[in-house]
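Hello everyone,

My group is preparing for a crystallization screen and wants a predicted model to guide construct design. The compound we'll soak is nicotinamide-adenine-dinucleotide. Before spending weeks at the bench, it would help to have a computed complex in hand. I've included the protein sequence and the ligand's SMILES below. Output in structure-token form would be ideal because that's what our pipeline reads.
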Amino acid sequence: MSANRAVAYIEPGTVEVQTIDFPTLEVKDGPGVDPANVGRRCPHGVILKVLATNICGSDQHMVRGRTTAPRGLILGHEITGEVIEAGPDVEFIRVGDIVSVPFNIACGRCRNCKERQTGICLNVNPARPGAAYGYVDMGGWVGGQAEYVMVPYADWNLLPFPDRDAALEKLRDLTMLSDIFPTGFHGAVTAGVGVGSTVYVAGAGPVGLACAASAQLLGAAVVVVGDFNTDRLAQARSFGCETVDLAKAPLTDQIEDILGVPEVDSAVDCVGFEARGHGGGEAPATVLNSIMDVARAGASLGIPGLYVTGDPGGVDADARIGSLKIRLGLGWAKSHRFMTGQCPVMQYHRQLSMAILHDRVRIADAVNATVIALEEAPGGYREFDSGASRKYVLDPHGALTRAA
Ligand SMILES: NC(=O)c1ccc[n+]([C@@H]2O[C@H](COP(=O)([O-])OP(=O)(O)OC[C@H]3O[C@@H](n4cnc5c(N)ncnc54)[C@H](O)[C@@H]3O)[C@@H](O)[C@H]2O)c1
Ligand SMILES: [Zn+2]
Ligand SMILES: [Zn+2]
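Reply:
Good plan to model first. Here are the tokens for the complex, ready for your pipeline.
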């Protein structure tokens, strides 16, 4: 067991499956690794055999060349696996446990972790608060679109599943706990969704669909999903959402047709900075402005969609540093609250795992989870980038194929 196959970012539009070193309980130098993290020892970490690892819209920002991700960066922050080695300081996680890994890396010791803000841990990324596996500017922790990966602070970060057989059987659903299900749920919770809410979800990608399913789980009366991608809108309708095709008519008119009023109680941005405007071109602030438009006065706006501080492909000089034309006056006039940032996965993953294990939600079907081999990752990235209405799940050891 000295080698490890893993998905690497090569250049805009290209990823490649490469052979890399087998992980150890230490951060080694490599593409994207913060020099101040090199040599960091992780006796509190574990090595996982990766059983499921998903391709995310967040990966696409890097693979489209819209970030400063370096060549050779090993991708993958959505990881579920089996513990095959535990460091000497790991007390409660055991070899053989099947575990979900929150995409946020957190120490469990700093002020923010103590306040459950694990998306902005102060001790895992020398460059800024917050870290993730396989992501630009996120500390250089090696990604988990791989056969094996190291996870630090294992007792704190990992969610072990109580029953091994049940976990393996529901792996296609449980794999969504590492990111998109909690992220979509966080979007809905921070937008104040509850029993009887009317909700607008911008974006019918996997995060938007997970948010829509979450809003249903939270008791929303009507969930309206908007996108330009008709296949993805059909996917949203497959589990009971209303949809708006943004190419057709103004958003508020379509909301009024559905609800009888041109506004909703809660609105969520599940698109981010690569948003398309109505003219077809990119308009990075358009979703932020449209959710302010459509949300009632007094609403909270959930903004899991990602915004960056550096975008080499930005539409203008402002956008290249993440400075967008947001109509804040409108949000101010309506007393809107905004919630942005990484989803603190740990606040939600245990509850959502229970909802999955006890059949309260069918998240894999909602996002059209599609299992492919690790070696097929380049094709999965291409199809996802072309707008396929699928959430690609890589199966490095055949566990998902066996479960099916
Ligand atoms: N905050 C977090 O912790 C977190 C976690 C995961 C993903 N994300 C982010 O969430 C966003 C969505 O992720 P995804 O995997 O679903 O990505 P995705 O790219 O598959 O989906 C985005 C969808 O938005 C649609 N879209 C574009 N412009 C639009 C507009 N003006 N109105 C409505 N829809 C529009 C696209 O057609 C696409 O279907 C990304 O920005 C991703 O980086 C954030
Ligand atoms: Zn993700
Ligand atoms: Zn911390």
